[in-house]
Amino acid sequence: MTVKSLFLIMMGGILVNNYALEKLLGLTPFLGYTRRGGKAAGMGIAITVILLLAAAVTWPIQTYVLDRFALGYMQILVFVAVILALSYAVNAVLKKSDGLGLGVYFPVIVLNSAVLGLCLSNIGEGYGFVEALASALGCGLGFLLGMTVFAELREKIDDACVPKAFRGLPITVLAAFIFSMVLTAFK
Amino acid sequence: MKNESILKSANPITILFLGACPAVAVTNNVLSALGMGIAVLAAMLLSSAIISAVKSLIPQKVKVAAYILIIAGVVSLVQLLMNAFLPDIYRMLGVYIAVSAVDLLIFSKAEETAELGFKRSMGDSLATGLVFLLALVVMAIFREILGSGSFAGLAIPFMKGYTMSLLTQPSGGLLMFAILLAVINAIRPMQAKPETSFAAAASGIYTEQNGEDEK
């Protein structure tokens, strides 16, 4: 495990295996929350933070509890519970400090297939602890990059004249298709 | 009258939007699409049944957490059953079957279950699950025949050399998804109705529908 391999894992998460556009996890909030610039960046940052926390907590649980006591079949339930508890904890801490909490970001974090998917694939790939953190950071930054760029893209779509059948969601998915093809070039 | 209301609640665009992740990810093969659709349908029916049985025991404050944990348990069950009886399809679906534990479509049905009665919620879940299954299979048929020149794993002889490998990629899935949504949109436009549920907040569907008003 060298710095180079960590960097590769991270860049892979950002560009090659972008969670929203290549692995298609967390696609729904990606499409739903990129309407106007402001929220997209905040959402990306919130997801990055929770991804790092979740990866840091689920990896030891898998290695020292589930694997040791052969409880692999409890994996989904335990990981979902951990992510849920983390989201509530972060929400409570933020509420104490600034009185607002996670607000609109809370449901997105709790019901986000990217967070669960990353924790599961960290285990599936056999990553060590530091590698798991690197891939979480890459995944989060990939979300942040994707969401901010895509939000800008959608502002252009709003001003364009779109055929009636494609108005709303279809044209958004079509734009995501083109964006996803651009990322395919990094493979 | 009752049937009509069930069909109305099963708006295909809303369903596909909430289930966008599996809808695009697993539809490069008819078999995996069928497996995913059935898994989601089973998980939805089972979690709706459990939630309508225990809903009076769940305090309002921890409603969301309780629903998510119930769904996660049901999905674990479905995953283990699939691993035991359909190992090939299970391997094809990979991580996507596990992440249905936080699937917005299943969660939104669970949330509605608490408000509807047992019978209506079961009918509603069944209708939603079948619409989702149908949409997945339709997408998979087009993607598999045009993308890899086969149907459910069996090669079609005259398609050889005329395939578009783009359609088997994730980006091709997005293209097919967009086309499917546009076709549905042309036949039956989505009615904007304000949603206040947790699932709607998690998906951002509210901002999607009422984007015009935001300006």
Please describe what this structure looks like.
- The complex is a heterodimer of chains A (187) and B (215).
- With 187 residues, chain A is an all-alpha fold.
- In chain A, 74% of the residues lie in helices and 0% in strands.
- Chain A is built from eight helices and no strands.
- Chain A has helices spanning 3-16, 27-32, 37-66, 75-98, 105-110, 113-124, 129-159, 169-184.
- Chain A is globular and about 60 Å long.
- Chain A starts with a helix and ends with a helix.
- The model of chain A has no long low-confidence stretch (mean pLDDT 85).
- Chain B is mainly alpha-helical.
- Chain B has 13 helices and two strands, in the order αααααααααββαααα.
- Chain B has helices spanning 2-9, 12-18, 20-25, 30-54, 63-85, 87-93, 95-98, 104-113, 118-148, 170-187, 198-203, 205-209, 211-214, and strands at residues 150-151, 154-155.
- In chain B, a hairpin with a 2-residue loop joins β1 and β2.
- Chain B starts with a helix and ends with a helix.
- The model of chain B is unreliable at 1-7 and 207-215 (pLDDT under 50).
- Classes of the chains: A mainly alpha (187), B mainly alpha (215).
- Chains A and B meet through α2, α4, α5, α6 and α8 of A and α2, α3, α5, α10 and α11 of B.
